[in-house]
């Protein structure tokens, strides 16, 4: 059966390379997965004072995570870590205590950078939080997409066959992982 993957993108930028890479991964992935990008830009800042009367956007966001069989994270690196907007969304869906929406779901992690290191710091800071949140993370292949501006063009087209194979190979491994663990 087809498994539903919720996709979280760690950049709100309109022309985000991470978003374009996420769309390329989706386009190249096996048909045994269906994808929905879950937008995080409208998720209000987490504030523990609001937990008793949560904003409607928190509830909608948590429901979308819960309705997903698996989560794919595609994120840039900001200051050697994940962007605050992604951490905020994770914090919101991890609560209230004992009701972590991510609990037990398989996860795929793709980090991106316009530089050569490919978001290693972001990738592993994200993995630290996801480990605590009891997500079953695909370990291999690791996906550090460096030189992101060369991997996807303005139009979102993947620049060359080697990059296409790299993204497609990840999608295939992720699909196998999701079907094994979800
Ligand atoms: C960056 N960038 C960046 N790149 C990197 O490889 N390591 C880093 O630590 C950072 N830090 C960082 C901080 C902030 C605040 C910004 C705005 C940018 C550069 C980053 O790779 C580049 O802006 C990407 O284009 C961001 O990804 P999207 O928006 O294209 O998906």
TrEMBL record:
It comes from Labrys miyagiensis. This is NADPH-dependent FMN reductase. SUPFAM superfamilies: Flavoproteins (SSF52218). Residues 4-149 form the NADPH-dependent FMN reductase-like domain. InterPro entries: Flavoprotein-like_sf, FMN_Rdtase-like_dom, NAD(P)H-dep_reductase.
């Amino acid at each position: 059966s087809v498994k539903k993957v919720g996709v979280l993108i760690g950049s709100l930028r309109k022309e985000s390379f991470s978003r374009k890479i996420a769309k390329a991964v989706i386009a190249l992935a096996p048909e045994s997965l269906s994808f929905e990008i879950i937008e995080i830009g409208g998720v209000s800042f987490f504030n523990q004072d609001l937990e008793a009367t949560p904003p409607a956007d928190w509830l909608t966001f948590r429901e979308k995570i819960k309705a997903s069989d698996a989560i794919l994270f595609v994120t840039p690196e900001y200051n050697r870590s994940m962007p605050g907007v992604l951490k905020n969304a994770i914090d919101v869906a991890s609560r209230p205590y004992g009701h972590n929406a991510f609990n037990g779901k398989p996860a795929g992690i793709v980090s991106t950078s316009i530089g050569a290191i490919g978001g290693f710091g972001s990738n592993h800071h994200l993995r630290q939080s996801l480990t605590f949140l009891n997500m079953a993370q695909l370990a291999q292949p690791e996906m550090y997409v460096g030189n992101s501006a060369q991997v996807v063009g303005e139009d979102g087209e993947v620049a060359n066959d080697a990059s296409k194979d790299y993204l497609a190979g990840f999608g295939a491994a992720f699909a196998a992982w999701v079907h094994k663990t979800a």
